[in-house]
Design a protein that fits this description.
The chain is an alpha+beta fold and 232 residues long. 16% of the residues lie in helices and 33% in strands. It has 2 helices and 14 strands, in the order E-E-E-E-E-E-E-E-E-E-H-E-E-E-E-H. The strands form 6 sheets. A 4-stranded mixed beta sheet has the order 9-10-14-13. Strands 1-6 form a two-stranded antiparallel sheet. Strand 9 and strand 10 form a beta hairpin. It starts with a strand and ends with a helix. The relative contact order is 0.12.
Length: 232
């Protein structure tokens, strides 16, 4: 990642003074950075206006950093993203923050993670959901289908006959690894039955035969219901 941050000026080593010049103690605050004055019964402290709270008086400022002791630079660092991390996670990289004032040490860098959406998988905690389209005949007769997984290629799933759109099948251990290192979540395949958009002559003939069989079955059911009403 590329991080813009303040780094210690290499010319003055962070003290803000031009090389070879002296740094004197502030005569007003005696190096404390604050001055105190009496206000009634109270003693009040405020930032020294002469040295601006630094406690030092620079005779000649560093031309590189204009006396700030720090300069802003872009810095590229490599960070490790742990397996199982999710959006909102905060990673702490020690010693990669901004340099302190007057040559002080570096702070830490905090990286907030935002996980991009996947084109196939939807994540819910450590579980994954994937939509799997199947044909009308696969749903009616049952079949073995291939389900994509996140890292292991494809997994074979047996779909029973009579499967309906929206049916959910669980494949254990094919989800996201736990951030705490305790196993993996599961993969849930959500089936979507695809209705054929165009039929050839042979397919149409078969569907027409199926429709006639279903009509005969419905008529037989209606007849049986009327018989039960008469003799029941």
């Amino acid at each position: 990642i590329n991080v813009p941050r303040f780094e210690t000026c290499e010319t003055c080593n962070g003290n803000g003074a031009a090389p070879g010049t002296s740094i004197n103690t502030c005569s007003l605050c005696s190096g404390a950075g604050q001055v105190r004055f009496q206000q009634g019964f109270f003693t009040v402290s405020r930032t020294c206006h002469q040295c601006r709270g630094t406690g030092r008086m620079v005779t000649s400022y560093c031309k590189t950093c204009q006396g700030a002791g720090r300069i802003e630079r872009d810095h590229t660092i490599e960070i490790k993203i742990p397996a199982g991390v999710d959006s909102g996670a905060r990673l702490r990289i020690a010693g990669e923050g901004e340099a302190g004032s007057q040559g002080g040490g570096r702070g830490d860098l905090y990286v907030f993670v935002e996980v991009k959406e996947h084109e196939l998988f939807e994540r819910q905690e450590n579980n994954l959901y994937v939509n799997v389209p199947i044909s009308f005949t696969q749903a009616a007769l049952g079949a073995e289908i291939k389900v994509p997984t996140l890292i292991d290629g494809e997994e074979t799933l047996k779909v029973p006959e009579g499967t309906q759109t929206g049916s959910v099948f669980r494949i254990k251990g094919k989800g996201i690894v736990s951030l705490q290192g305790h196993g993996r979540g599961d993969l849930f395949a959500v089936v979507s039955v695809q209705t054929p958009a165009k039929l050839n002559r042979e397919q149409r003939k078969l569907f027409e035969q199926l429709a006639k069989l279903e009509e005969q079955k419905n008529q037989a059911r209606k007849l049986g219901s009327k018989v039960r009403e008469i003799f029941g």
